[in-house]
Amino acid sequence: MPIKRSSVVGTISGVVVLGGVVAFTVGLPHLTGDEAAATSTSADRPAVADVLPESLLGNRLVRIAKVNQSVGDEIEKYGASTLSHVFGADTAVARYVSPDGQVQFSITVSDAGGGLFLQNGPPSPRQITESQGFVVRTRQVDGVPCSELFAAQPAADGGKAPDPTKGAPVQVQCQTEVDGRAFNGYGVGGISAEQTVQALDESIALDRS
């Protein structure tokens, strides 16, 4: 299944990029002291940084550091350091990009555990959000909670507007928890929820190895 390009530009794209950062910080509980220690990595479990693949989906996504090492290393270290400090638990971040640069994707793994997953706040009725130019679809994909953001499409010549969920999402984020460890995938540029869950499965496989 190819990764589709998104045709959405402008203000929606700007909001989307910021939304991914906020969503992950809201989605994980704040742990300190004994709670954080209780969810720390066990001696026989790989460290969070060791379960982040160098590439995903058959090399359709590669670590940004492979394209630009200084930039890739900087943004990954900053994300990991910031989230580890905020949640008081080991957290690692990997940033990926497609060869054409259209798709950007992140996997964040944290020993802070999971929690309530709210990508853009609680879902609203479609007729309300569609009038504001976007549609949010929240669903499970292979048992993993995901949220997708689509750009609403105008009706042609007064007819019925096309269903935006039939195309590629502007933004997608999925999050699951495995034995107290959170795995969060976030992408923009046309990656689907199904591909996001597949990418998370590749990280989870390393965690179980």
Structural commentary:
With 209 residues, this protein is of the alpha+beta class. It is built from six helices and eight strands. It has an eight-stranded antiparallel beta sheet with strand order 1-2-3-4-8-7-6-5, sandwiched between helices. A hairpin with a 2-residue loop joins strand 7 (171-178) and strand 8 (181-188). The radius of gyration is 17 Å and the shape is globular. The two termini are 26 Å apart. 40% of the residues are buried.
Computed Rg: 17 Å
Beta-strand content: 15-25%
> Could you spell the SSE succession in H and E letters?
HHEEHHEEHEEEEH
> What is the mean pLDDT?
80
For the secondary structure, the number of strands is: 8
Helix content: 25-40%
What would you call the shape?
A: globular
Terminal residue distance: 26 Å
Oligomer: single chain
Q: What's the tally of helices?
A: 6
- Helix/strand-derived class? alpha+beta
- Biggest β-sheet strands, sense, barrel: 8 strands, antiparallel
Organism: Nocardioides panacisoli
Protein name: Secreted protein
In short:
By secondary structure, the chain is α+β, with helices and mostly antiparallel strands. It contains six helices and eight strands. This is Secreted protein.
What are the main properties of this structure?
209 residues; alpha+beta; eight-stranded antiparallel beta sheet; Secreted protein
Which helices and strands, and how do they pair?
Elements: H1 11-27, H2 33-38, E1 55-56, E2 61-63, H3 64-67, H4 69-87, E3 91-97, E4 104-110, H5 126-131, E5 134-141, E6 144-151, E7 171-178, E8 181-188, H6 193-207
Antiparallel strand pairs: 1-2, 2-3, 3-4, 4-8, 5-6, 6-7, 7-8
